[in-house]
Every structure is written in C-alpha cells, then in structure tokens.
Design goal:
about 100 residues, Trna Endonuclease, Chain: A, domain 1, four-stranded mixed beta sheet
Amino acid sequence: MAKRVDANQGAIVAALRKCGATVAITSALGNGFADIVVGYGGRNYLVEIKDGSQPESAQKLTPDEATFHEKWRGQVVIIRNVEEAIHFLNTSTKAKRKEFEQ
C-alpha cells in the first residue's frame, strides 16, 4: 500500500537539495520504506519524514514503518522539519570527518 505524503516533504526535499544533497523520493513505494533517500558527503541515508506541525500522535510511525525500521540493518533517520534536515546534514558531515581523521 502506498503511503500518504507529509505536507512538509516538499520543503524538506528542497532544503536538502539547496544544501547540495541529492534526493530520491521513495514515498510511493509504501510498505514502510522510508520517504526519501538522501545522498550527501559520499553516503546514503534513508529518511522518514514526519510533519512536526502535527500533534505527536500524528507523527508516530505506522505499523509498516515501525516494522521496516526494526528490521532494517542500516540506519533510518526521522526528520520533522527543515531545521532538522539541515542539522542532520551538518551532523552527518562532521561524523564522516571524524571517522576519516581517526
């Protein structure tokens, strides 16, 4: 079953792209798969988008999303707004730099 697209997805995708990330929109895949796949700093990230302006109860993972997150052997990040998206890119870049410095 295809998922519904959160109202803030377009703004988050635009912000990520403006920061230099590549973004593949995968929300139509459904079955709990992440909403977008982000390429940045030589890495790929699965990103689940939730609308931070909605009540917390509306931001919970669906049963399919929860199952996917639990079984996925890589990382999946949840982003609720543009500020979190930019913070995530900044944090992921710093983590990569530290990894290569060691």
